[in-house]
Specification:
This protein is an alpha+beta fold and 92 residues long. The chain is built from 2 helices and 4 strands.
């Protein structure tokens, strides 16, 4: 998993997020990844953190959700994996 791989997954979905040139602060565990959005135009919006899921059958990453907090709420994910992502860990 790389920033360019996640950017390719991001560009496959129609979305209302600000123009994105890439991702930083990548974290990966248990078939999930989080990454902080790099904006095309600085100051246009607050960068969001994106949650991606890997599908083994198709060997592809896909955007699950994004935001600035609680992006893992409602996502079926093992507790051990959730704890690996600071944006997901609610201390449980």
């Amino acid at each position: 998993m790389s920033a360019s791989t996640l950017l390719a997954a991001f560009t496959k979905v129609k979305n209302e997020y600000a123009a994105t040139t890439g991702f930083t602060d990548l974290r990966c565990h248990g078939g999930f990844a989080t990454a902080l959005q790099k904006l095309k135009t600085e100051g246009e919006a607050e960068p969001a953190t994106f949650l991606f899921r890997y599908t083994r059958a198709t060997k592809t990453w896909a955007v699950v959700t994004a935001g600035s907090s609680d992006i893992c709420d409602g996502v079926e994910m093992p507790a051990e994996t959730r704890r690996k992502f600071p944006i997901c860990d609610s201390g449980s």
